[in-house]
Write a structure and sequence with these properties.
Elements: H1 7-17, E1 22-26, E2 31-34, H2 35-51, E3 59-63, H3 68-80, E4 83-86, H4 93-102, E5 107-110, H5 112-115, H6 122-125, E6 129-133, E7 141-143, E8 165-170, E9 180-184, H7 185-198, E10 206-209, H8 212-221, E11 224-227, H9 240-250, E12 254-257, H10 259-272, E13 281-284, H11 291-300, E14 305-312, E15 315-322, H12 328-335, E16 340-345, E17 350-354, H13 367-373, E18 381-386, H14 400-403, E19 404-407, E20 410-421, E21 427-432, E22 437-439, E23 442-444, H15 446-453, E24 459-467, E25 470-477, H16 484-493, E26 501-504, H17 520-528
Parallel strand pairs: 1-11, 3-4, 3-5, 4-8, 5-6, 6-7, 10-11, 10-12, 12-13, 13-14, 25-26
Antiparallel strand pairs: 1-2, 8-9, 14-15, 15-16, 16-21, 17-18, 18-20, 19-20, 20-21, 22-23, 24-25
Length: about 525
């Protein structure tokens, strides 16, 4: 096979190998594109962007939901050596404007609704070029494309290097200036290779795709991406009945989704006594994946391999474990405060657990100094990683001091997560390093408590906090699961955690992106108002 060094080259290879195979099924918009049609459509858009005066290296802000239009535009930008810029719309207008100040885009490609933001944002109005895809809008240029047109699939690519910038995304910036994460074409290809291996991507299969980055991996691997007709912005509220109906119609063999999305799917199947027989592989990640969810997924997809994936924005994936690999002793360890089993690190990553350095900057280290920082087996410390698919730094170094360091010149990333390695070399997670409690009762990681109780009947979510110097476990669940007798029983079960109180609590707040991680700042605000 010819040497492939970028995602566009990988896609072009798929076009030559299987031009008439289905690349994308966009159910909501009624578009089904073969690999050749996707290449032709992106070629149409690329031509028009060039004619509009854009150049290689220009940043283009994109506001499009997961759709055939999104990937047509994205591949056009890649083809031209331009950089696609994405900002989380749930973070608010002020955050969007800050991101545009950090890296001013030269163009804006958006839905009609997103174009309305220009009416209230001077920062967006300053962007030189404004485009919509196939929809004429005032004060913007329409990018027209016809994926059914007969055009040669062999399209010229801009001379891309592995170091050519490809994607620019931003952290939420909730604690200050957003950090810009720049991914090069080389980084994306390295990530695709790891995902193809970890997710067992197989050309010709259909994948129910809920996370944007995985579509790129699918396209490069020759996998059909099925984009469901539901609102994927809020996975914890997704219309599971609609998703199940689409699964039954299109028969995907795999999916990778957030726990909140899959919990909705499992609950709907349990209620209607349905099985998702087409699935052979189900992966869940992006937030903690507890054993109870893995077991529920196995029940509704009995022919499927169920896998929990651990990773982060800067390093995806880091480790994974299948339900079949987990033993009774592992489940017992989780219930006794051992944390959450994440599994063996992927072969492509270097992972170490070092003495917890939270709140301090790690200087450049020699290999010997770094080795001396490593902790022993089963000793809890800070998880750090390095590898080709680990983001080496942020744009302009903003945030590098707190999250990056070098060992013998090699960049390492500090995940901010605490954990340990067991005798088998498997990684166990203990939650955020900064969440560790140190009080007169000793050391305690709140996440270990939350993992221990996850999956108990009637309990939806728990959160361990401190209030007036006391250890307080908040429990959200059914009336039966949160009555005084049940709460007392929970406290007795968690005797090792030395809790001062278990208290029923309505609507523990979670993050907006995955609807699964506890939003502790918001939770403490709610507590203070009670």
């Amino acid at each position: 096979m010819e040497h492939i060094s970028t995602i566009p080259e990988a896609l072009q290879h798929q076009v030559m190998q299987r031009p008439n195979a289905i690349a994308l099924i966009d159910i909501r918009h009624g578009e089904t594109l073969t690999f050749a049609q996707l290449a032709a459509a992106s070629g149409h858009v690329a031509t028009q962007l060039t004619q509009a005066g854009l150049h290689p290296g220009d940043a283009v802000l994109i506001f499009q939901p997961m759709s055939a239009k999104l990937y047509t535009a994205l591949l056009a930008l890649f083809q031209l050596g331009m950089m696609a810029m994405f900002v989380d719309p749930s973070a608010g207008l002020q955050h969007l404007e800050r991101c545009c100040q950090i890296y001013p885009p030269k163009a804006f490609i958006a839905t009609p609704k997103a174009h309305l933001l220009r009416l209230i944002s001077p920062q967006l109005r300053q962007i030189p070029h404004s485009f919509s895809l196939n929809t004429p809008l005032p004060f913007s240029q329409t990018l027209l494309y016809d994926p059914t047109a007969s055009i040669s699939p062999r399209l010229a690519l801009h001379s891309l290097q592995p170091s050519t910038p490809a994607l620019l995304t931003f952290t939420s910036g909730s604690t200050g200036r957003p950090k810009a994460a720049l991914r090069t074409h080389g980084f994306l290809l390295a990530q695709q290779a790891v995902l193809q291996s970890s997710l067992q991507l197989t050309a010709g299969e259909i994948d129910l795709t809920t996370l944007p980055i995985f579509v790129l991996a699918n396209l490069a691997a020759g996998v059909t991406s099925l984009i469901p007709n539901v609102d994927l912005r809020f996975p914890g509220k997704v219309n599971a009945t609609a998703v199940i109906r689409q699964i039954q119609q299109y028969q995907p063999t795999s999916t990778a989704a957030s726990p909140a999305f899959l919990e909705r799917l499992a609950a709907a199947c349990e209620q209607k006594m349905l099985e998702l027989a087409s699935f052979r592989r189900i992966f869940s990640g992006g937030a903690p994946v507890f054993p109870n969810l893995l077991k529920r997924l196995q029940a509704i997809a009995p022919q499927s391999q169920i896998t929990a994936v651990y990773g982060s924005t800067e390093a995806e994936p880091i480790a994974h474990v299948t339900l079949a690999e987990m033993q009774s002793a592992d489940f017992e360890a989780i219930q006794q405060g051992g944390g959450l089993l994440a599994g063996h690190p992927v072969p492509e990553i270097h992972l170490r657990v070092i003495a917890n350095q939270t709140g301090t900057v790690i200087p450049a280290l020699s290999q010997a100094d770094f080795d001396a920082m490593a902790v022993s087996v089963r000793q809890i410390g800070e998880i750090v990683v390095s590898g080709a698919h680990v983001l080496p730094g942020y744009w302009q170094g903003q945030g590098d001091e707190e999250t990056k360091f070098r060992v013998a010149g090699i960049p390492w990333h500090r995940t901010g997560d605490a954990g340990y390695l067991d005798e088998q070399g498997r990684l166990w997670l203990m939650g955020r390093c900064g969440a560790r409690l140190l009080d007169e009762q000793g050391e305690l990681y709140p996440f270990a408590v939350e993992a221990a109780i996850a999956g108990r009947a009637g309990i939806h979510r728990t959160a361990l906090v401190t209030q007036h110097g006391k250890r307080l476990l908040l429990v959200e669940g059914t009336p039966e699961a949160t009555d005084p007798a049940s709460l007392q029983h929970i406290q007795q079960q968690l005797e090792w955690a030395k809790l001062d109180e278990c208290r029923a609590f309505k609507n523990i707040p979670v993050d907006k992106r995955h609807n699964a991680k506890i939003d502790y700042p918001a939770l403490y605000r709610k507590l203070s108002n009670q």
